[in-house]
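Slide 14.
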Amino acid sequence: MPLPGPADPQENTWPGASNALGLEPSAYLRQHAGNPVFWRPFGDEAFAFAAERDVPVFLSIGYAACHWCHVMAHESFEDQATADYLNAHFVPVKVDREERPDVDSVYMAATQAISGEGGWPMSVFLTPDGLAFHAGTYFPPTPLPGRPSFLNVLEAVHEAWAERREAVEQNARGLASNMANAQMSAAVRLDGPPEVLDAGLLSDAVGLLARSEDMAAGGFGTAPKFPPSAVVEFLIRHAAAPSETAEAARDMAGRTLAGMARSALRDQLDGGFARYSVTADWSVPHFEKMLYDNAQLLRAYTHWIRLGGNAVFPVEEAAAVASDCADWMVSALAVEGGGLASSLDADTVVDGVHHEGAAYLWTPGSLQEVLGTGDAEAVARIMNVRSAGTVSALGSPLHPGKLLTGPESRTWERVRPALLAARNKRNQPARDNKVVAGWNGLAVAALAEAGAVLERPGLVTAAEGIAGYLERVHWNSGESLLTRVSHDAAPRGIGGLLEDYAFCADGFFALYAVTGTKRWYGLGESLVLAASERFVANGRLADSAGESAQVFNAQGQHAALDPFDNATPSGAAAFAGALLTYSAYSGSHDHRLMAGNILGLLPPIASRAPRVAGWLLATAQAALAGPVEAAVAGPDTPSRRELHLALLASASPGLVVAVQTADDGGSPAAAVDVPLLRHRSGGADGSAQVYLCRGMVCERPVGTVAEVEARLAAMVSGD
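Slide 15: predicted structure.
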């Protein structure tokens, strides 16, 4: 029998009725701990409570840096009358999408299927067993054209649940069944021979991308415009291999990287990149700064430098952008113990009120307070700061919109330190200190490679510190288990998802290539082997290992695999890349086949929507290149270091570099075996040599940088 509801919504007398978020470590959940809404964290207890009360679950998903999440919280979740109704007729559940991307992914798919839109905050209504039956995103406190108020939605859902339960549950089951069918169509089978990759598919993808390119501002599509990091990585790799579309790929990558670098998307004072722009010309950013964006962009700018740039975006400018971005990541996001925090908020709180981007906005008057009249007028002109703010009355972001040269460049470089110092005295956006394993893996790879290419060993040291944190805090070697999130240097919550294992493995392999420290190779290998077991069942690959019964139900009781890139590469694409790298180091035919099977996802996606298949395309480009394997052997001498640096500076797609070292300072990692280095030796005269190989079949060793560069160029060309 259903429990009777309270006669008056003000009388929320259910046992255990209170806000339960106060002790949660998630910064996002704690932001809502003071709401009059009786929030619960996602889990079996919340759904059991909904079943006991015979009411739906209201699931609200967001993240700490989300501006519109703050808006809906203030308008609705802090409103007592709205909270009373919500508490009386639903079990409210809060989810930090960054901690639980498995929950976010399945209910985002449901939201898009139900409402035709997606985004955060996400508002989903569920049966007590986790099936979605109604959904939307932001709902205002009062009705707007085409969008009902939040209270209107709550009343309509409650009425449907009370009066038309059978139809509601039938629709929920139908949606779950449809989602299961969609998952079956996107399934990856790993127990058969992979299809042969068609190089023409990659050239065709370049042509399709060109159709949606914004040639004036860079990037793809119209507003809102997000940094297309994975697509740029593909374009850079494609440009490095001879083809009829190589120059077109180089030009698109250069225009995109230049457009972002010269815009308000990039913080012109501290070098960090914002999440996206609400305008097509990158002039008005949405101000949250995410680790995952900056890590991916740092790597893209670094790889552009390796490619050699072009006239539109020269390597000197790219190097300055990459260096500033790396410095921002290390200084702004470092947490105690060595990891990197996940984000900075979009909003700044001033006098208790959230203001979007307040820390970053300028007016002609605020410039004058810092710089005086002459310089202030020059900077306002250079950076497009007008009396009417482009964001709010608080002002405009700094947006040059072009490459600064001559007097403009000299003026800007002279005043930049004073502006940054003045801005640092303002109220600053809050930081979400949770450490996400996969995003830190992205940062390890980016910082290690940037350190090598920019010749900044301090960045490599920072990458080693982050990698050590992941090994110490997130990786349980005894159970071969990676935890997704940590707070205050303590692991917490669910096991890592496929993307976490893949990003971390890729980071460890990249760090090994730069340092030659076998410990990092061993960790990358352990993660690949663990993921190959954890995320494969009945010959099929999945994004998670079934952390939630409710998520499993919502997916129609089928394991899910999302093949599309989002803010980060899809777990499947990232895993294919890690498998390809591992197979090149280890010679494992089985893992090379697994990578090939995942790349089987590519043809139907790339032929229709290459913008969401960037990392699959990039991995396919590496696979078609071999990838080329390089083993550096011989004593640690200046000439060997020159050979090693020449390899690290190469743009060869997917090049894998191994360096012969005696040990790792006596650590257990000294026993790690890197198969690519087996039976390699220096020259008879004790000189260093490089073995260049494909499929573990190597050519005669070469001993000079010129020979290395010539052979790499020939191998990329297929000669």
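Speaker note: The first strand starts at residue 40 and ends at 41.
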